[in-house]
Write a structure and sequence with these properties.
Number of helices of chain A: 9
Order of helices and strands of chain A: HHHHEHEHEHEHEH
Structural class of chain B: alpha/beta
Strand order of the largest sheet of chain B: 1-12-9-8-5-4-3-2
Number of domains of chain A: 2
Strand content of chain B: 5-15%
Helix content of chain A: 55-70%
Number of helices of chain B: 12
CATH class of the largest domain in chain A: Alpha Beta
Distance between the termini of chain B: 25 Å
Shape of chain B: globular
Radius of gyration of chain A: 17 Å
Oligomer: heterodimer
CATH topology of chain B: TIM Barrel
Strand order of the largest sheet of chain A: 2-1-3-4-5
């Protein structure tokens, strides 16, 4: 039987072909797709996140791990969908208006996908109207906004105030991140959470989602 | 021209004051946040020259061209991918116009905005092609050398250094952006240590090895310089930020003013041949440093 810990280890090491193969093997053996996702892919990504946070690994290792995760998900997603397993939540993500940096945002998006979110990526230089339209269309649980520049982070505040004025915060949570942003800044502009890096963004997204679900229940 | 080649002067033991931040100055001059500062070399040449002239008047002996993002990958985000050479040429002419007869101009190359294959999707050929256009255009105007700065990836910076060498740049400088890591020491976002960065850049043919930007305090650059000096005899270049930006009310503030930064830069000048500033530093910072240096 396929060892899901081995699957996780291949993901940590960024072996995309092995991750794809073991994911397929596990599915062929009739393993529960949710178990493969949780104990294989997500468990591996968890370790990657911790190592990144602790400066044991850096962006290249996270990128190859994320690529390996994608290789596994390619096999898993159709099965999850066929089993009626829904994404755990919907996350709209984008770099704010005036800012064209996307390395960090892309990492967060990839890891959120790995964690089971449906991710709608609006790209860079995203005007408020585009965030608003995506919220209307996709009904996300969380909107994540990124800014690298100190000169564009003010746009996050503008957006958050508009979401608040539109009465969206009974069903929506907002996260911010990016090189220029800090925990204090996130708090000062009324964001619900600050993502310091990709792994911690995923952790915070999960806890915001749990909060939202508890509030809805 | 009586000015000696910059590389010869450095090898002779001369030390230099570099310039300070460009992006923040462009925004003060009216560039919109997220706008294309490189394009201003064409559309707002006088404003670009005015900033560079203020740096020269403040005492900067080396000016960098306003070409941080002059490559097809960054410029394509502004639909300007076809104008790499044109912008680079204008930028070199702007800096030369602002520079006095004794001021050197280095053609500036910032990160390409993505990752090289296989990690990313940018091919070495494509990067060489676009950087060749920018470097050649600046060399044709007569810059004193080419500097690669704020780099985080070894494959990218060494490709650039080799290319600038091939194109006959009279001097090639290579500067990376380091962050402090848990447990001590420094790495770039891509995990490169100052020693590895310095060693690889020197091996690729860089004449000057440096560090700039990053999430470091200016004082941290002493340790970074030590790590680099342990593996290379090349002259060093250090350009720290004016501290780490923080928010005051709704304004972004770099905490180190000219009088606070000057002693730190003076200390760095004991460890490096070229010392200037990066994000948040202004002509006033450079003037205070130049005065303190005497």
């Amino acid at each position: 039987m396929t060892d899901l810990a081995e699957l996780a280890q291949h993901l940590i090491d960024g072996h995309d072909a092995d991750v794809a193969r073991l994911t397929r093997d596990a599915l062929d053996e009739g393993r529960a797709p949710a178990a493969i996702l949780e104990q294989g892919l997500i468990a591996g990504m968890q370790v990657v996140g911790e190592r990144f946070r602790d400066n044991i690994i850096f962006v290249p290792e996270v990128l190859v791990a994320a690529r390996a995760m994608k290789a596994g998900l390619a096999h898993l997603e159709p099965v999850l969908a066929a089993c009626g397993i829904e994404p755990i939540g919907t996350y709209v993500i984008g770099t704010v208006k005036g800012d064209i940096h996307d390395i960090g945002k892309n990492l967060v998006g990839m890891m959120l996908k790995g964690a089971g979110f449906r991710v709608i990526d609006l790209g860079v230089n995203t005007p408020l109207a585009k965030f608003q339209a995506a919220i209307e269309e996709h009904r996300p649980d969380i909107v994540g906004m990124s800014a690298l520049l100190t000169t564009t982070m003010g746009q996050m505040k503008v957006n958050i105030e508009s979401f608040r004025a539109a009465g969206l915060f009974d069903r929506l949570r907002v996260m911010v991140g990016g090189a220029a942003v800090s925990e204090d800044y996130a708090e000062s502009i009324g964001a619900h959470a600050y993502g310091a890096d990709a792994p911690s963004s995923v952790a915070k997204a999960r806890s915001l989602l749990a909060e939202l679900k508890a509030a809805r229940a | 021209m009586t000015r000696p080649l910059l590389l010869d002067a450095l090898r002779g033991g001369a030390t230099f004051v570099g310039d300070g931040g460009m992006g923040t100055e462009l925004q003060l001059a009216g560039l919109e946040p997220g706008g294309c500062g490189d394009e201003w070399n064409l559309s707002h040449a006088a404003a670009v020259q005015a900033i560079q002239r203020r740096y020269a008047e403040a005492g900067a002996q080396i000016l960098l061209t306003n070409t941080f993002g002059t490559n097809q990958f960054v410029l394509s985000r502004y639909d300007l991918a076809e104008q790499v050479a044109e912008i680079a040429r204008a930028a070199a002419m702007n800096a030369r116009a602002a520079a006095g007869p004794h001021t050197y101009v280095l053609g500036d190359i910032g990160p390409c905005g993505g990752f090289l294959e296989p990690l990313g999707e940018i091919s070495e050929d494509a990067l060489r092609q676009t950087w060749r256009l920018a470097i050649q255009a600046m060399l044709d105007v007569g810059v004193a050398g080419i500097i690669f700065e704020t780099m985080t990836a070894l494959d990218e910076i060494t490709l650039g250094v080799r290319l600038a060498r091939e194109l006959g740049a009279p001097l090639v400088a290579a500067s990376m952006a380091y962050d402090p890591v848990r447990g001590g020491g420094f790495r770039t976002m891509m995990g490169v240590s100052p020693a590895d960065g310095a060693r690889a850049c020197a091996a690729a043919g860089a004449d000057v090895i440096g560090a700039n930007c990053g999430r470091m305090e200016p004082e941290d650059f002493v340790a970074v310089a030590g790590e680099m000096a342990a593996v290379t005899d090349a002259p060093l270049m250090l350009q720290p930020n004016a501290g780490q930006p923080r928010l005051e009310g709704t304004a972004i503030v770099y905490p180190r003013g000219p009088e606070s930064l000057a002693p730190a830069l003076l200390e760095l000048a004991r460890h490096a041949a070229i010392v200037g500033g990066c994000c948040g530093t202004t002509p006033a910072h450079i003037a205070a440093f130049a005065r303190a240096r005497g």
